[in-house]
């Protein structure tokens, strides 16, 4: 697919969406919003794709909304968020496959929400996540209030939001926001290595584990226990399950079709 503001590439069952507005630090204009919606919908529904990587071109992951855009089709800010941003962010959260945020630089504003919507994160050492909204007398949006609070707890999330403080890669690693921190020059290679490793795993295990763990955040222990039992019952004895067992007994890598 050809897009104006992003690139979508697929290799070794890994899709990579690269935000491509480097002169604007990959800030979101209306076209980028629509492009992200279309690309995430395609990846979400393509069963051949097993992992999605999202990253940015140039020095930034995304600096947030493009405040220099003067004309857009939105009736107001609420319309932009609900009709524009929400569909592609929800696509990422509900994607039936892991989404890796490869954070190459600043992830600020709605860019922070995008980074936090990913399931897994790998960051360059100089990259950071920042809720910048209070600097211009606004509140977090894009679901960042939910995503950040869920990740690091109310008190710390509130502190970082109302003071518009950078969460450095080191802080992200210490607080469990990011899984890995690497040198910028190694980011692409390490991201691809990780994504391709995950792409060899069982698609049904990846998809269902993601759903179970997301749902568990708002469920009781018994609800989660029952959901696990239901899922396990549905996939036990499946082709992927049988291939995994056979590969284990034969001491080889499984080949999940």
Automatic annotation (TrEMBL):
Short name of any one Pfam family annotated for the protein: ECH_1
Matching InterPro entries: ClpP/crotonase-like_dom_sf (IPR029045), Enoyl-CoA_hydra/iso (IPR001753), Enoyl-CoA_Hydratase/Isomerase (IPR051683)
Top-level taxon in the UniProt lineage: Bacteria
GO molecular function, one term: catalytic activity
GO biological process, alphabetically ordered: isoprenoid catabolic process
Matches recorded under Gene3D superfamilies: 2-enoyl-CoA Hydratase, Chain A, domain 1
Family per similarity comment: Belongs to the enoyl-CoA hydratase/isomerase family.
Listed name of the protein: Enoyl-CoA hydratase
Native source organism of the sequence: SAR86 cluster bacterium
